[in-house]
Amino acid sequence: xxxxxxxxxxxxxxxxxxxxxxxxxxxxxxxxxxxxxxxxxxxxxxxxxxxxxxxxxxxxxxxxxxxxxxxxxxxxxxxxxxxxxxxxxxxxxxxxxxxxxxxxxxxxxxxxxxxxxxxxxxxxxxxxxxxxxxxxxxxxxxxxxxxxxxxxxxxxxxxxxxxxxxxxxxxxxxxxxxxxxxxxxxxxxxxxxxxxxxxxxxxxxxxxxxxxxxxxxxxxxxxxxxxxxxxxxxxxxxxxxxxxxxxxxxxxxxxxxxxxxxxxxxxxxxxxxxxxxxxxxxxxxxxxxxxxxxxxxxxxxxxxxxxxxxx
Amino acid sequence: xxxxxxxxxxxxxxxxxxxxxxxxxxxxxxxxxxxxxxxxxxxxxxxxxxxxxxxxxxxxxxxxxxxxxxxxxxxxxxxxxxxxxxxxxxxxxxxxxxxxxxxxxxxxxxxxxxxxxxxxxxxxxxxxxxxxxxxxxxxxxxxxxxxxxxxxxxxxxxxxxxxxxxxxxxxxxxxxxxxxxxxxxxxxxxxxxxxxxxxxxxxxxxxxxxxxxxxxxxxxxxxxxxxxxxxxxxxxxxxxxxxxxxxxxxxxxx
Lengths: 311, 254
Known about the structure:
Strand order of the largest sheet of chain B: 1-4-9-10-11-12
Organism (chain B): Gordonia soli NBRC 108243
Number of domains of chain A: 3
Distance between the termini of chain A: 62 Å
Largest sheet of chain A: 9 strands, mixed
Oligomer: heterodimer
Family (chain B): Belongs to the 3-oxoacid CoA-transferase subunit B family.
Low-confidence stretches of chain B: none
GO molecular function (chain B): CoA-transferase activity
Largest sheet of chain B: 6 strands, mixed
Strand content of chain B: 15-25%
Number of strands of chain A: 14
Number of helices of chain B: 7
Keywords (chain B): Transferase
Protein name (chain B): Putative CoA-transferase beta subunit
């Protein structure tokens, strides 16, 4: 009898148990799109602190700032993708000076993850030259000069984007098996494979946990974004990306795919409105943040019903 | 809409749309990336008139085969997820029209935040793709409300690179090209002395004094600027009946 293949299915608590203060954590998705929000919520209510976060930021960074978990952030932007666009908790962390930022061009995030994925110390990139990105990095961002002059004899000096090495990566994919093979079903893979490739420990949450056979039959081959080498733990988290967008946006996914939800715009607005004063935030936090994931999903349903009834 | 439209019927928003379309004159087979409704209608107008080879997307990940109305969908011809957008940026085959919270006389732009870098007084998006856009390919700006708050002495944070940042010894800066600034008052570029902000045309009804009062620095050639041309009948029909029948443009420019 050969040994059984590794079953990576885990709970949110299993994942949080592996995290330590001061870690650098990369968070997949983009803005308010397919963010691993179940993992983010679990991290926000844990005791882990003093984190460095690498992200195309959205409410993931906002909620971690709200919980006081972030000491340093590397990002290309922070956006909720729909009005009022600017995340209120990230804005507060910034205007009160409680986080140090290494703001950069969006393309520099991809470049830094690619460098880490290839175990390179840096990759050259034009983006950043002449801008205040260099000032944001307070000496941590250097340039590199090409050994090959251009045809006119001048020599290009470029930003030497350092590798964005991650202690851990969080990503949300729509469909996965128990071994870490996983697929996206919408129009965009974002950068989730790069986040995993740049990290020591890779944590995947998924809407649908299926057999390998069902996974590969459900989606075209090109959608199989993650293979087993990319993933350490798989958490079954239906609706886990809520309140960000996830799932099949263009009916491109196969018949077996059930994960299909847009951004919960009403709830995202409610999140923003709840940050206006201490009282409303305490109410929001007690109902939706300090609770476990099961309770969160139940309260979301209840909240929706309340909104309907109030109409 | 079969009758000839008279000048008085034409709105400021429609003049702005045509000025935004002209941003893409001669652009060829590149990706047009407008980031607000007025330049979006403008890019699509250019595609339906003089620039049929422009690539346009749904703003998400799909390349449109046809040229649908603002907010509408349509048949697609290709795939452009965010990571491939960065490949297009690096290739130079793109012209972006970004917004701006601040633009200075040399074309430095800010959409990141106001105040000190590590403790701003007001937080916006962060630099987004502005550093990479400006250093790689043609970039234009759209400002729906031309004011001294936008056009001031200096920007708080340089997200979009201006002409005074260029190191002429470094060829990596060679593709910096801030093509146009279109506002509710006129059309501008950075063709003034030492690549400074210059008036190319003022929209009909806009005075020199109005532009001067609403700009925090001297505008080159302001006295000489002609009127922005009016839309043709064909352009008006396309704007009103095909591209923006719901009048989204009128919510951005009043």
